[in-house]
Amino acid sequence: MTAEALPPPRRARFALPQGPLAWRAFLIQAVVLVAIAAFLLWVGRNVIANIARLNINTGFSFLSRPAGFEIAQKLIGYGDSASYFDVFVIALLNTVVLTAVAIVFATMLGFVIGIARLSSNRLVAGVAAAYVELIRNIPLLLQLFYWYFAVLRPLPGPRQSLNFLDLAFLNKRGLFLPYPVFESGFGVLALTVLVMIVLGLVLAWMNARHRRRTGSGLHSVRLIALLLLIPPPIAAWLTGFPLSWDVPALAGFNFTGGMTVIPEFVAMAIALSLYGAAYIAEIVRSGIRAVPTGQIDAARAIGLRPGPINRLIVIPQALRVILPPLGTQYIVLLKNSSLAAAIAYPDLMLVFAGTVLNQTGQPLEVMLVTMASYVLIGLAIGAVINLLNRRVQLVER
Amino acid sequence: MKRGLVLAAAFAALLCTSASAATLDTIKQRGTVNCGTAPNLPGFAYTDDKNVRRGFDVDMCRALAAAVLGDADKVQLSPLGLRDGFATLTTGGVDVLTHRLTWTYNRDNGSGLDFLMVVYYDGQGFMVPKAMNVKSVNDLKGASICVAQGSTTELNIADYFRARKMDYRIVTFADLDEARNAYEQGRCDAWTNDRSALAARGLQLKNRDAHVILPEIISKEPIGPIVRQNDSQWAHIVRWTLFALIAAEELGVTQTNVEEMKKSEVPEIKRLLGIGDDLGQKNGLSADWAYQAIRQVGNYGEIFERHLGEKTRLGLSRGQNRLWKDGGLMMAPPFR
Q: For labeling, which of A48, A120, A239, B292 is most exposed (least CB within 10 Å)?
């Protein structure tokens, strides 16, 4: 008996309800929809009427008014006449940078601890378990305060800073590092380096392809790779070494020059990373446990060592289980970054939904913009995770 | 948590009806005067060890309750922060803010609020460790300064330092106590706030004598009660009740002698205390509204000395808050 191909599924199209039961369902849905729309309309009209009655300013025109106050960490230029919109961008950047750093370190630490917890070494597994249980069960705000004062207390004042080769300084006011100053001609140098890197990648790809086809690498590939290292130093010498450093120096109360990493950022990054790592460790552990043990047995049977077993067999399959909750945990880290308001890290909540809200007196608009920002960043994180997720999913017919 | 309060207040705005009941009627019906005060500021609004709310701002509220409802204890005090203070007032959560919020153009206009009068003239100052040997704010070039955010503090520093072309590093905290803790730890060289707050919160420094408040006052911070816009009657009641406290001090009427003052022959005292003339009826109050406020809470000077004066831990002098005839700025319009 020949198997016939199934007809392709028909796309659902809107069809009129057939029969009294379908009509009743349709009517109920229509009534509910109208009720919700009416409620939203009534709410909207109430807001407008109350705002008019109370004579409150509305609208987003405040974003173009000058802000006039100072911010502790500014990743882009901020002059005297900067507007509230510039303040919003600076605060948003601070939030994004903090969240990114926290995500990176939390993931790295979380994977290590998660795998450690599964170790056959009882001490290692015990320490990992203790870490997870401790960090998970203490509120993040408390941990944040602890790290802030734990970071601040032992550090010396500016006059007695810890000195690293006179280039970098560490004290209560922050970590002061030299900042590169790009002079003219740096573009040429950067371009040269970039071209060499691209050529190197192409070379690596060609080598891998050759190896796949013939079993041995390209002839004298190492020699060619070494040749790629020659042009950049020549370019640097020709353009006169267009890179100097702005070294921080003590002037009066504080260090000026160079770039500063404020202690608030460090404390928040530490607290968020450790906190996220505890949760990610559990996610990783559950993902690895979800891989059927038969896989590991089969891998051992064909002679693989523990390192390649983990790398080639266990982790790729574990990722299917790990990625979705990992995305959730990243978004949780994003939202937890808003606790920065407690320790003076100038993020979106403290600067925009705090100072700007108070100075402009327009809580509705400011909160709307803040909420929309968090939603958009969270959606972006979720989209990236979903993309990665799709790549590791099992291909099903 | 405070975020949630703002959003809840906004939601309350959505749900309240368009018809606005007059605040006085609402208060009489409810039976209490709802005031918003600072959560924990020694001298102004704090909870003592018997769990009773006390302070300068609390007494302002109690005076209102005594005038309107006849009983100074019929108050409901809501501790509000800087962020949710205004929102709670505009959405009806409180009837009046007896808080530490400065009267500024931007706050008065276009935010649905009315500032009524000044009950406390404050100004922004700086506290520095004595060991730093700084004698004036102008020596703070390049310094790190701890600030509590949201108030006019940040703008005042920015304006002051910009005008003198001095740069500085700011460290902005959401909470006054956190700012003070960081200053104590050495995170910043100086700590700035209204001088009354420096005096009040500075009490909690471990070694208060190692710190000094610099002489400069870099801003005007007029502080007074705030009510919702478009409620003239309630605004007048609040304003004139607090003026009555100032007038009482001008006329020499105190909490202890107010009973005998009822027999006084001075016309203005008689009008103030409601003898032979009923000023209260114009605002829907009883004739002895001012008498009740003075008898139960005291006059302005007594309230000041009780909570902020030189005999208290804060040790603030009256300064600009003296009566006009003593060289200060406190004056009540005539009760005539």
A: A120
Beta bridge partners of B33: B75
Give CA separation, B103 vs A148, A260, B199, B304, B319, in Å.
34, 36, 21, 20, 19
Q: Please answer yes or no on whether B20 and A53 come within 8 Å at the CB atom.
A: yes
Interface of A with B in 39-68 (CB under 8 A): 43, 46-47, 49-51, 53-57, 68
Residue B235 tokens, joined: 């605004």
- CB burial class (10 A; 0-12, 13-18, 19+) of residue B57? buried
Note the pLDDT of residue A190. Answer: 85
Do A173 and B16 lie within an 8 Å CB cutoff?
no
- Binning pLDDT at 50, 70 and 90, where does residue B1 land? very low
Among the four given CATH numbers 2.60.60.30, 1.10.3720.10, 3.40.50.1580, 3.40.630.10, the one describing domain A62-141+264-397: 1.10.3720.10
B16·A56 Cβ contact <8 A = no
Q: Which chain B residues are within 8 Å of A361, Cβ to Cβ?
A: 86, 106-107, 110-111
The reply to whether B182 touches chain A by the CB within 8 Å rule is yes
Give tens-digit pLDDT for A209-236: 888 888 887 777 788 878 888 888 888 8
Q: Which of B90, B106, B169 sits opposite A359 (nearest CB)?
A: B106
Predicted ipTM > 0.90: no
Q: Which domains does chain B have, with CATH numbers?
A: 2-7+22-121+223-326 (3.40.190.10), 124-219 (3.40.190.10)
Chain A residues touching residue B154 (CB < 8 angstroms): 69-70, 355
The whole-model pTM stands at 0.75
Which chain A residues have a beta carbon less than 8 Å from that of B112? Answer: 51, 54-56
Cβ of A353 within 8 Å of Cβ of B87? The answer is no
Distance (Å) from the alpha carbon of A307 to chain B's nearest alpha carbon: 47
Residue A298: band (very low, low, confident or very high) from pLDDT cuts 50, 70, 90: very high
Could you report the per-residue pLDDT of B8-54, keeping only the tens digit for each? 445 555 544 434 578 899 999 999 999 999 988 889 999 988 999 99
In DSSP notation, B108-119 reads: HSSBSEEE---S
Token pair for A84: 């509230």
* Tokens 């006390």 found at: B54
Helix (H) or strand (E) holding B35: strand B33-37
Q: Does B190 touch chain A (CB under 8 A)?
A: no
